[in-house]
Amino acid sequence: MKKTIALVTGGFTGESVISLKSAAVIGRNLDPEKFDVYKIIITPESWYYEDENGGKYEINKNDFSLALNGAVVRFDCVFIGLHGSPGEDGKLQGYFDMLNIPYTTCDALTSAITMNKGYTKAIVQDILELHVAKSIQLFSNSGDNVARINENLRFPLFVKPNNGGSSIGMSKVKTEAELPEALAKAFKEDSQVLVEEFISGREFTIGIYRGAQGIGVLPATEIVSSKEFFDFEAKYTTGVTEEITPGRMTPEEKQSVEKIARLVFEKLNCKGITRMDYILEEGTGNLYFIEINTVPGQTENSLIPQQVRATGRTIQDFYTELIEAALYIKK
């Protein structure tokens, strides 16, 4: 019997445009033989289903049901394709937990913690063979921030919103004079800002997921950007970045990275599909953890679909496994 799936997209942040693009790809790749799919768009104003004719039908938030054509649609599982708040920070997960509806991402606690880059680094930093860049977490754009940064960190630096995604509001800073503008840009996106030392090396990202056979690791992608760092334009503009999947690593590096990726996934109690960004430091080969994304992009330019295809699997089969794992875990 087919399962009824709510594909949730939209959101409350600047990442909503990416969420809608991700949902379009996910929707095209959910098996129509196994699933009846309803795309649910969440905005600050309303939660609604939009049919193919443009008709909009409001979701009943009391039980996340949908009144449609004289019947009530209830969902067996939610495929969360919403980046940023409220789909990646634990808010929706907590809501669905209260309604006892399974979903395809990490739970509410893990989602909330991993949305905060500083807190995540504090949790994973004691994992063997994993390194984190020296950093400072700022909670207000106060006048003494520049002096504090100068005293504790070495340039160049990355300044980024602590709870943001898609590299929105992020800057690379080479001198003290550039700090005020970078801090203002980051604080415009978030009330917390992370300032961390730049690590010179090769940048990678790797998908880790919980499927039918437990934790699985996808082939890593090496990021070679024509931009100075992997910013919003580099992530979502075709041709700006070269993405090499599988990434160029020695067998020893590959084995070490996959082991660390599994440990990070377990330490943070992750579920669904996640993507860990990391740097292999120049000269040492040390793995420096950047962040983990619990609702990674699924657009045509996104990295997880590339990594799935590199395994020889179809995206459709992979999404089916994620849904079936979510339904199994909820039992």
From TrEMBL:
<dbReference type="GO" id="GO:0005737">
    <property type="term" value="C:cytoplasm"/>
</dbReference>
<feature type="active site">
    <location>
        <position position="166"/>
    </location>
</feature>
<keyword id="KW-0133">Cell shape</keyword>
<dbReference type="InterPro" id="IPR000291">
    <property type="entry name" value="D-Ala_lig_Van_CS"/>
</dbReference>
<dbReference type="GO" id="GO:0071555">
    <property type="term" value="P:cell wall organization"/>
</dbReference>
<comment type="function">
    <text>Cell wall formation.</text>
</comment>
<keyword id="KW-0961">Cell wall biogenesis/degradation</keyword>
<feature type="binding site">
    <location>
        <position position="291"/>
    </location>
    <ligand>
        <name>Mg(2+) 2</name>
    </ligand>
</feature>
<dbReference type="GO" id="GO:0046872">
    <property type="term" value="F:metal ion binding"/>
</dbReference>
<comment type="pathway">
    <text>Cell wall biogenesis; peptidoglycan biosynthesis.</text>
</comment>
<keyword id="KW-0067">ATP-binding</keyword>
<keyword id="KW-0479">Metal-binding</keyword>
<dbReference type="Pfam" id="PF01820">
    <property type="entry name" value="Dala_Dala_lig_N"/>
</dbReference>
<protein>
    <recommendedName>
        <fullName>D-alanine--D-alanine ligase</fullName>
        <ecNumber>6.3.2.4</ecNumber>
    </recommendedName>
</protein>
<feature type="domain" description="ATP-grasp">
    <location>
        <begin position="124"/>
        <end position="324"/>
    </location>
</feature>
<dbReference type="InterPro" id="IPR011127">
    <property type="entry name" value="Dala_Dala_lig_N"/>
</dbReference>
<keyword id="KW-0963">Cytoplasm</keyword>
<dbReference type="InterPro" id="IPR011761">
    <property type="entry name" value="ATP-grasp"/>
</dbReference>
<keyword id="KW-0464">Manganese</keyword>
<feature type="binding site">
    <location>
        <position position="291"/>
    </location>
    <ligand>
        <name>Mg(2+) 1</name>
    </ligand>
</feature>
<feature type="binding site">
    <location>
        <position position="277"/>
    </location>
    <ligand>
        <name>Mg(2+) 1</name>
    </ligand>
</feature>
<keyword id="KW-0547">Nucleotide-binding</keyword>
<dbReference type="GO" id="GO:0008360">
    <property type="term" value="P:regulation of cell shape"/>
</dbReference>
<feature type="binding site">
    <location>
        <position position="293"/>
    </location>
    <ligand>
        <name>Mg(2+) 2</name>
    </ligand>
</feature>
<dbReference type="Pfam" id="PF07478">
    <property type="entry name" value="Dala_Dala_lig_C"/>
</dbReference>
<keyword id="KW-0573">Peptidoglycan synthesis</keyword>
<feature type="active site">
    <location>
        <position position="302"/>
    </location>
</feature>
<dbReference type="InterPro" id="IPR011095">
    <property type="entry name" value="Dala_Dala_lig_C"/>
</dbReference>
<keyword id="KW-0436">Ligase</keyword>
<dbReference type="GO" id="GO:0009252">
    <property type="term" value="P:peptidoglycan biosynthetic process"/>
</dbReference>
<dbReference type="InterPro" id="IPR016185">
    <property type="entry name" value="PreATP-grasp_dom_sf"/>
</dbReference>
<dbReference type="InterPro" id="IPR005905">
    <property type="entry name" value="D_ala_D_ala"/>
</dbReference>
<dbReference type="GO" id="GO:0005524">
    <property type="term" value="F:ATP binding"/>
</dbReference>
<dbReference type="InterPro" id="IPR013815">
    <property type="entry name" value="ATP_grasp_subdomain_1"/>
</dbReference>
<keyword id="KW-0460">Magnesium</keyword>
<comment type="pathway">
    <text>Glycan biosynthesis.</text>
</comment>
<dbReference type="GO" id="GO:0008716">
    <property type="term" value="F:D-alanine-D-alanine ligase activity"/>
</dbReference>
<comment type="similarity">
    <text>Belongs to the D-alanine--D-alanine ligase family.</text>
</comment>
<feature type="active site">
    <location>
        <position position="15"/>
    </location>
</feature>
